[in-house]
């Protein structure tokens, strides 16, 4: 499971990348510096550490604009902005970070940027005149900001991969629905669908990062991503709730299982026995082909406008999908919160879902 520090680090990186994405005032200023064939050192934030290692320069305390950043960067020294890049606090500042801080960077500006970021834990941006690149230093790492065309090329390749993954996911999820209705689901079937869900989630997470980096240039990519992953996260949650053990030593919460699956490395994810183990199902080779029985959350989710509490009441009352499928409208009506009208709707929708799944498989 990802630690709190790792989660915070990822969120910080995403927020800073959003600040320097195309379409923002800060990115416009950085691009102007590059086009002007000059370098720059920009610190996003001011605290006691920055004040301690700063020497010289002058206070400006003016609103941030791309033009002002470009003009102030012409002078030697660093430009200090507030954390949100809404104000330019000072310019022409000489930064003197601790020289004992290790860095693999070459060149005075880049070494200074790396050390200042490590010492202050603030984002520092270096614009290289000779290499014509913009580098972001944050959390002990260096990120080179690429142009939109390069990012879009990578994003489109990832999007094509996601389309293939989603097509395969839909295929195995459809087969799972049919087997659930026929009560023929095995542990391997469940683990395979969960595996495909996780593969979709990972590639979509990568594309989401590209969307952040692209800023205003990523609107179309964002729409395509939303369309491709629509409903996937909810469906995975229902699968976990359908099959996870609810009592005994292997009992776990759905959120913990999802985190455990997300923590599997790429090689471990390819082995369905690892996924079965995380869910809490028997994971030895022979047990993978044992039959398991869904509770019915996933198929009940296909019934329109059915509140979460009714889900819980139906599952608790009938105990399994097979009992739900065989229940009459009168039996459904007796469940707390259902009533006659909703009972008929549930009965009709479950019958329709069952028929559609079987027709899809055998016709």
- Count of alpha and pi helical runs: 17
CATH architecture label of the largest domain: Up-down Bundle
User: Could you name the CATH topology of the largest domain?
Assistant: Ferritin
Strand content: 5-15%
Major β-sheet profile: 8 strands, mixed
Write down how many β-strands occur, each being a DSSP E stretch of 2 or more residues. 8
When the domains are counted, the total is 3
In the predicted model, the low-confidence regions spanning at least 5 consecutive residues are: none
CA-CA gap between termini: 43 Å
Q: Round the Cα radius of gyration to an integer and report it.
A: 27 Å
Q: Which structural class should the secondary elements be placed in?
A: alpha+beta
Helix content: 55-70%
Global mean pLDDT: 90
Spell out the CATH superfamily of the largest domain.
DNA integrity scanning linker region
User: What is the N-to-C succession of helices and strands?
Assistant: HHEHEEHEEHEEEHHHHHHHHHHHH
Could you name the CATH class of the largest domain? Answer: Mainly Alpha
Overall shape: elongated
């Amino acid at each position: 499971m990802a630690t709190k520090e790792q989660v915070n680090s990822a969120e910080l990186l995403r927020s800073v990348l959003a600040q320097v994405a195309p379409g923002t005032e800060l990115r416009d200023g950085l691009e102007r510096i590059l086009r002007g064939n000059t370098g720059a050192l920009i610190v996003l934030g001011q605290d006691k550490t920055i004040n301690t290692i700063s020497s010289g320069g002058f206070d400006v305390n003016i609103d941030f604009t791309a033009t002002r950043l470009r003009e102030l960067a012409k002078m030697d020294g660093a430009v200090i902005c507030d954390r949100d890049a809404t104000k330019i606090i000072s310019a022409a500042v000489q930064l003197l970070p601790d020289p004992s801080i290790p860095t693999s960077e070459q060149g005075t500006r880049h070494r200074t940027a790396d050390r200042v970021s490590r010492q202050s834990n603030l984002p520092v941006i270096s614009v290289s005149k000779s290499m014509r690149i913009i580098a972001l230093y944050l959390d002990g790492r260096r990120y080179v900001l690429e142009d939109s065309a390069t990012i879009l090329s990578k994003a489109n390749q990832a999007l094509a991969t996601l389309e293939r993954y989603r097509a395969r996911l839909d295929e195995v999820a459809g087969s799972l629905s049919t087997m659930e209705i026929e009560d023929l689901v095995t542990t391997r079937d469940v683990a395979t669908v969960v595996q495909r869900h996780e593969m979709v989630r990972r590639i979509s997470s990568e594309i989401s990062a590209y969307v952040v980096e692209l800023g205003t240039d990523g609107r179309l990519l964002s729409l395509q991503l939303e369309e491709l992953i629509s409903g996937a996260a909810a469906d995975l949650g229902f699968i976990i709730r359908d099959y996870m053990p609810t009592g005994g030593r292997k009992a776990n919460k759905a959120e913990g299982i999802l985190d455990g699956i997300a923590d599997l490395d790429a090689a471990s994810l390819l082995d369905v026995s690892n996924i079965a183990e995380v869910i809490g199902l028997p994971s030895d080779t022979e047990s993978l082909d044992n039959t398991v029985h869904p509770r019915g959350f996933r198929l009940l989710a296909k019934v329109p406008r059915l509140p979460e509490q009714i889900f819980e009441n139906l599952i608790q009352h009938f105990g399994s999908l097979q009992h739900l499928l065989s229940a009459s409208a009168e039996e459904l009506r007796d469940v707390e919160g259902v009533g006659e009208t909703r009972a008929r709707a549930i009965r009709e929708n479950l019958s329709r879902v069952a028929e559609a799944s079987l027709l899809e498989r055998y016709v």
